[in-house]
Amino acid sequence: MTTATRVLVLNSGSSSVKYQLVDMADGTRLASGLVERIGEEGGVADHAEALRQVARDLTGKGLGLDSPELAAVGHRVVHGGTRFTEPTLITDEVVAEIEELVPLAPLHNPANITGIKVARELRPDLPQVAVFDTAFHATLPEAAARYAIDAATADRYGIRRYGFHGTSHAYVSRATAALLGKEPADVNVIVLHLGNGASASAVQGGVCVDTSMGLTPLEGLVMGTRSGDIDPGVVFHLERVGGLSADEIDTLLNKRSGLLGLCGANDMREIGRRMGEGDADARLAFDVYVHRLRRYIGAFTAVLGRVDAIAFTAGVGENSASVRAAAVRDLEALGIELDPVHNAVRASGARLVSAASSRVAVAVVPTDEEWEIARDTYRLAGG
Ligand code: AMP
Question: Which residues does the entry assign to the active site, renumbered to this chain (predicted)?
Answer without folding.
Answer: 133 (proton donor/acceptor)
